[in-house]
Amino acid sequence: GAGVSQSPSNKVTEKGKDVELRCDPISGHTALYWYRQSLGQGLEFLIYFQGNSAPDKSGLPSDRFSAERTGGSVSTLTIQRTQQEDSAVYLCASGNTGRPEETQYFGPGTRLLVL
Amino acid sequence: TQLLEQSPQFLSIQEGENLTVYCNSSSVFSSLQWYRQEPGEGPVLLVTVVTGGEVKKLKRLTFQFGDARKDSSLHITAAQPGDTGLYLCAGAPESNYQLIWGAGTKLIIKP
Description:
By secondary structure, chain A is an all-beta fold. Chain A has no helices and 11 strands. Chain A has one domain: Immunoglobulin-like. The model of chain A has no long low-confidence stretch (mean pLDDT 93). Chain B has one domain (6-110): Immunoglobulin-like (Sandwich). Chain B is 0% helix and 55% strand. The interface between A and B is medium-sized, with 21 and 26 residues.
């Protein structure tokens, strides 16, 4: 596609429910990143995919968070038993090769509110 | 743990003024990027600097990478309301593939 897309754009859920966030990267990009951003703050790294593999899961905050990528394309970030502190904007980015100096192309994010 | 410290965290100035945003670390980076993020959108890359001492200009924006590749600055001349946004720096460590992100500088330019 022309850019990175994410869905849903907004999600309101009740504490304890599970949520799935989707990312469609730029076609052909092998690298995919998930970040979390609290209001007006910097980016907190969650996980990095190279193809379908996740060589770096170090940023996942707890075992309630998981992510997968299929077909080297679409990725899903799942948060189980959501907590209020999970409320944030979840950003996805893709890159052509995964080299750290290359441009990361970001989606518009999913705004998650846990009540 | 490698850190990138950005300063100031918040800056509100009048249109036409000049400003500088700083990004500092005790670690060496092989490259450093600056992104701008507008409300409701993801960050967009402005520039990548890779050589110590490098200076890059993008219209009224001037980016500099420190000689030792540990710090960087972004200078905006004659700021415009359209420059309003969150400015983020991100460094690529020499020994790791993962970008290190600064906490961001929220910039507001008042007409």
